[in-house]
Amino acid sequence: MSTIKYPTGATVRSSHTVKDYHSGRGMRLENDVNESNAYYKAADIALIYKKPTPIQVVRVDYPSRNRAKIVEAYYRTPSTTDYNGVYKGKYIDFEAKETKNKTSFPNFLIHPHQIEHLLNVHYHGGIGFFIIRFTYHNETYLVDACQLIDEIHSLNRESIPYIWFQENGHLIQEGLNPRLAYLKEVDRLYFKEEQ
């Protein structure tokens, strides 16, 4: 069991052990990225945060004073991507997606407003990418946003073959700290001259 302490005094415990890494992987990409980001922050490597989903609360039920429950809400605007932050003085922005599909990644999982946002990040000099997990294969890839978007636009099909990710993606190493060493792949892809 590991413990992460935040400057605000909050403490988060992680119950991951080496033997349970392969159980329930299909539901854990967001948790894995969040744990990795907490490690990167604690080690003073990068500041990367999960973006909150913009919702508008319409109705709240108060069965008792300390048990307020949101019963009606809606999304104010479409969220852009899942994560953003700063690494080595550069703005980074990325979306994390997972699929249980064994042979391909469905294009509908990436929304038009996310494509537009990541193209704008690239245009303004930031680093934009996708983290794509194939739960069936127990593999997680980092793919440059522009490269994946070009592939989506050039295809005349509704999904991208799994083999495309093997050939064009960067397999992310998994471990304890960080859980997903995705910044190693960011270094290889975007900071080659520093290595």
Question: Would you give an account of this structure?
Answer:
- With 195 residues, the protein is an alpha+beta fold.
- It has a single domain, classed as Trna Endonuclease, Chain: A, domain 1 (3-Layer(aba) Sandwich), CATH 3.40.1350.
- Helix content is 27%, strand content 33%.
- The strands form 4 sheets. Strands 3-6-7-9-10-12 form a 6-stranded mixed β-sheet, sandwiched between helices. The chain has a two-stranded antiparallel ribbon with strand order 1-2. Strands 4-5 form a two-stranded antiparallel sheet.
- Strand 6 (83-87) and strand 7 form a beta hairpin.
- It is globular and about 55 Å long.
- The model is unreliable at 14-26 (pLDDT under 50).
- Count of helical stretches: 5
Mind telling me the CATH class?
Answer: Alpha Beta
CATH level 3 topology: Trna Endonuclease, Chain: A, domain 1
Distance between the termini: 33 Å
Detail the poorly predicted runs.
14-26
Number of domains: 1
The strand count comes to 12
The averaged pLDDT comes out at 84
Could you tell me the strand content as a percent range?
A: 25-35%
CATH architecture heading? 3-Layer(aba) Sandwich
Biggest sheet features:
6 strands, mixed
Pattern of helices and strands? EEHEEEEEEHEEHEHEH
Percentage of residues assigned to helices = 25-40%
Structural class: alpha+beta
Task: Give a brief description.
The protein is α+β, with helices and mostly antiparallel strands. Helix content is 27%, strand content 33%. It has helices at 29-42, 112-123, 145-154, 162-168, 182-190; strands spanning 2-5, 11-14, 46-50, 55-61, 69-75, 83-87, 90-99, 104-106, 127-134, 139-144, 159-161, 170-171.
